[in-house]
Structure formats: C-alpha cells, structure tokens
Amino acid sequence: PRRRRHRGSCPYFRGLRSNSLLGCGRFLETGRAMTSSQDACYISLLGLAEYFRTSSPPNIKKCIQCLQALFTFKPPLKVEARTHLQLGQILMAYTKNTELARNHLEQAWMLSENINNFDDVKFDTASLLAQLYQQQEQSSLAKPVL
Fold first, then answer.
1. Structural domain of residue 87, as residue ranges?
2. Does residue 87 fall inside a structural domain?
3. Which GO CC annotations does the UniProt entry carry (predicted)?
4. Residue 8 counted as domain residue
5. pLDDT tens digit string along 19-50?
6. Is the residue at 14 inside a domain?
7. pTM of the full predicted structure?
8. If both were cysteines, with which of 39, 41, 63, 91 could 53 make a disulfide (CB 3.0 to 4.6 Å apart)?
C-alpha cells in the first residue's frame, strides 16, 4: 500500500530555538523552476539532517554532512543561504568550531543581502553573526552587520 504524505511533513528546521518545523513549500520558494528530482534530493537531505539532529542522542556529525551534501547539487541562492544559516546555527550550538560557524554565517549573510524578501534569513544571520563577533571580542565587525 502506498503511504500518504502529509503536507508540511518534509522538514527544513528554521531555527534551533524552535521545535516547529518549516515545511517544504516555504523552503522550495526559490524563484526558479526546479526539477522534481532536485526537489526530492533537497527534501530527502533536509529530512535526514533533521532526523539526525533530533535523534536521541543527536548525531550532529551526520546532520552536518547531510546539510553540506546539499551544496553538491548547486542549489538556488535562497536554498544555499538558508542552508549556510542552518549550518552556522548547528555549529554554534553543538560544536566548538566557531571559525567554521562564522564562515557559514558570513556566506549566509552575503547571499541574503542580495535576495529580495528574504529578511528572516538576513536578520537571523545578522543576529548570530553579531553574537559570534562579540564572543570573539570583535564587536567592531558586528556593527556593519546590524
């Protein structure tokens, strides 16, 4: 028997501070047509990443690997920016690798600057970058971002 998919059941976790998941429809609003195989790859990798992140105990290494694998498909800019933000959030929350977190957040910031109507990613990224700069005692770098 064929299983039914529930609308919004493909997760793209918006933020680690929230348990609510962002559905596929919003995630795939990219402004360019994508093939269904691309959609399936993105959704599968995001679903796996969320599964590993929420496992008990969490498998953060595999979660990060799934998110990094998205970049091999040359995703649209919105997908790329949001994925860089997610990687930065995860690295900040679960690891001590602040340099890699900073690199991903800076990439998310640069990409989101040039995308219209993408304020949620831009503001979340700016907030996290400012926190990271402050932790690294580089507050002067936070001012232009904020």
1. 24-145
2. yes
3. nucleoplasm
4. no
5. 323 333 344 444 445 567 887 888 899 999 99
6. no
7. 0.74
8. 63
